Amino acid sequence: MKRTILITGASSGIGAACARLAAARDTHLILHYGRNRTGAEDVADAARINGAEVTLIGADLSDPAQIERLGQEAAESDPALPFHLINNAGIVDARASLEDLTAERMTRMFAVNTIGAILVAQQAVALMRRQGRGGSIVNVSSVAARKGMGGQYMDYAASKAAIDCFTIGLADELAPERIRVNAVRPGLIETEIHAKGGEPDRMARIGHEVPLGRPGTAEEVAESILWLLSDKASYVTRTIVDVAGGR
Fold first, then answer.
1. Ketoreductase domain spans which residues (predicted)?
2. β-bridge mates for residue 4, sequence order
3. 30 near 6, Cβ under 8 Å?
4. How many angstroms separate the CA atoms of 62 and 153, rounded?
5. Active site residue 153
6. DSSP state of 205
């Protein structure tokens, strides 16, 4: 069956890997990007080559008004197709201890990673309810949510722990409407997010500490996300899957 998948944060990393994996005939991909339109266009071009129809939508997910616009444009792009959401977009900052955390940094972190993700889900669920066909949401959390990351990325970890809680609550709320809600928690994954956090060599330094002896790839995380999104996981909801090599 033809379907629409909205992927937030699709210009690079796990979001881009999800787009590449999901791209196929009879798939309409709505690829959200924040600032990196060039990256999103590259992902869109590759998806079209594989047969997908693609719509690009830029939005700052720290801005509720822009999230509302994202939801409206997504709904209008192909309103008849069954709708699914990969709630992936997120940000990180440089390593910091408690005394280094500022209100500005934490406000931005939670605005995007937590509040933004919840508001995107709100928009997606509104469309799913109008369609009355059920649907599927996969939130992208992080193993940091259960590690705490003291002295490193404690605010990021807290923002993702909130996503774990939100996933469970939303799954409970939406199960009677046949809308499944799950999450994945990636571990040490080779993506650009480490450079954005000021540690481009992080995987080279600590990737071997994972029980499986290596960091993971964005494609490995995407495989789990797309399975949870699919009808093959039709009896799976309220579940958080670690994709972390045993970490």
1. 3-191
2. 28, 83
3. yes
4. 19
5. no
6. H
pLDDT, tens digit, 9 for 90 and up, residues 39-84: 999 999 999 999 999 999 999 999 999 999 999 999 999 888 899 9
Which residues have CB under 8 Å from 100's CB, separation 6+? none
User: Among all chains, which residue has been given the structure tokens 């995987």?
Assistant: 203
Q: Which domains does the chain have, with CATH numbers?
A: 3-243 (3.40.50.720)
Encoding tokens for residue 162?
């909130």
Task: Of 19, 20, 34, give the one whose Cα is nearest residue 196.
Answer: 34
- Cβ atoms of residues 240 and 141 within 8 Å: yes
Torsion of CA 209, 214, 220, 222, to 10 degrees: 50
Residue-wise pLDDT tens digits, 178-213:
999 999 999 999 987 656 666 777 777 888 899 999
Distance CA 118, CA 53 (A): 26
Q: Which tokens belong to 144?
A: 């940091």
Quick one: which H or E segment has residue 29?
A: strand 27-33
If you ran DSSP here, which 8-state letter would residue 232 be given? G
135-163 pLDDT tens trace: 999 999 999 999 999 999 999 999 999 99
β-sheet with 240-243: strand ranges across: 53-58, 27-33, 3-7, 83-87, 135-140, 179-186, 240-243
Helices (DSSP H) in 23-114: which residue ranges?
37-49, 64-77, 103-110
Q: Which residue among 33, 153, 156, 235 is the active-site one?
A: 156
117: closest CA among 43, 6, 20? 6
233-239-242 Cα angle (round to 5): 100
The H or E element containing residue 133 is none
